[in-house]
Specification:
globular; 29% helix; 7-stranded mixed β-sheet; 205 residues; alpha/beta; Rossmann fold
Length: 205
């Protein structure tokens, strides 16, 4: 049964097809503009809204210690089936609060949000940015992609700009170190993406 998370609406029923779609594009292709910013040495990584686990799996293969957060039961099971041989820790948790991770006082060198942020409304984005900041270690990085374009039927999405996201991040102590604009990797002419790298600088640094 799919978790009752508003932003996850429409994902559970199509988990198999969505997982196949996600896996058709590689992590390296998705993050080609930011990949040089990822840690070269093994680091702690959390993939929030991990979907099929494509990105989590790629990072685990590189030697990182990866936690994959996915609230949609069907997608989480697909990820575990597809990438079960890899040492990925799967967690049932969700934005905007990420209650499970925060109560456990987890901290990560890398926080990844691929095609997730647009599922949150403004109030949820404000709460989520606070949660993400708490999960990010000092000098840690947040990598996220923002989808721009028409909303698919049955999905809950909002128009979120890179400018708004960078400003909101700054309020919470995350500074933008890189921004890139991209065409849609599935070839949809009416969809485009922004990719952001945000860094948490320790207070007083």
């Amino acid at each position: 049964m799919t978790a009752q998370v508003p932003g996850a609406a429409g994902y559970g029923a199509n988990a198999n097809a969505l997982a196949a779609q996600y896996e058709s594009i590689t992590f390296a292709e998705v993050y080609r503009d930011l990949i040089h910013l990822f840690p070269a040495q093994p680091a702690s990584v959390v993939d929030i809204g991990a979907g099929s686990g494509r990105d989590a799996a790629a990072l685990a293969r590189l030697g990182h210690h990866v936690v994959a957060v996915e609230p949609t039961t069907e997608l989480r099971h697909e990820g575990q089936r597809l990438h079960g041989a890899l040492p990925i820790e799967w967690v049932d948790d969700h934005l905007p609060h990420l209650k499970v991770l925060r109560e456990a006082q987890r901290r990560f060198d890398v926080v990844l949000l691929t095609a997730v942020w647009m599922h949150l409304d403004l109030q949820e984005r404000e709460m989520a940015m606070q949660a993400i900041t708490e999960l990010t270690a000092d000098n840690g990085q947040v990598f996220m992609s923002l989808r721009h374009g028409p909303i698919p039927e049955g999905r809950r999405m909002f128009d979120v700009s890179a400018e708004e996201t960078i400003s909101l991040a700054a309020v919470h102590g995350l500074s933008c170190s890189h921004r890139a604009e991209r065409e849609d990797m599935l070839g949809r002419v009416d969809v485009s993406w922004s990719f952001l790298a945000l860094r948490r600088t320790p207070a007083g640094a």
